[in-house]
Amino acid sequence: RSDEPKGAFNKITVKSAISDSGASIVRFVTKAPSIKADSIPLNDDASVLGTFDAKNETYYIYAAKGGKVIAPPDCYNLFCNLPKITEIDCSAMDTSNVVYMNYMFSSCPALTKLNLKGWDTHNVKNMSYMFNWSSALTELDLSSFDTSAVDDMESMFSECSALTKLTLGDNTNISGTIIANDATIGNATKTTGTFVGGGKYL
User: Fold this and answer.
1) How far apart (Å, rounded) are the C-alpha atoms in residues 192 and 197?
2) Alpha carbon distance 4, 74 (integer Å)
3) pLDDT in tens, 48-99
């Protein structure tokens, strides 16, 4: 697609590869893993590759030339409804071009660890239902998130029944009515710091 940055992965291909592999862990990494397994292309020009480590049930995604893996502008539904996944490490994903993150990690009931550290979200407009029904997550670190362009956060954390710790940064604003109806988080009125269930901050 002409609107996608050069070297971005194809989200449909990525999701299918993860699902078909039977992996329980997904890791975006900055170089090819040192395992004996075949790699498959995850975009048209094979600049992003994926390989499955069956021994550790881990699916690795990496750029063929090394460095961070470029995400496309539309990451809607990327990891949604992957019931077997317990851990996702996206810290090596370049999200600077992403506009849509709605439903990105929705309906992942086994997901207990999610690493989003270092994410650049200054272009993101939609984060609605982003973590919806990922009911095993106990904490999230969103301290790098810049939500200045976001205009939709509806039910961002809805049905995250285990979530008790939410770390926010100076540019992460989830205040007011944006999440007022989310029972898990409540009506947050502070924009930075570490949120703890029950409406308190550390």
Assistant:
1) 15
2) 9
3) 999 999 999 999 999 999 999 999 999 999 999 999 999 999 999 999 999 9
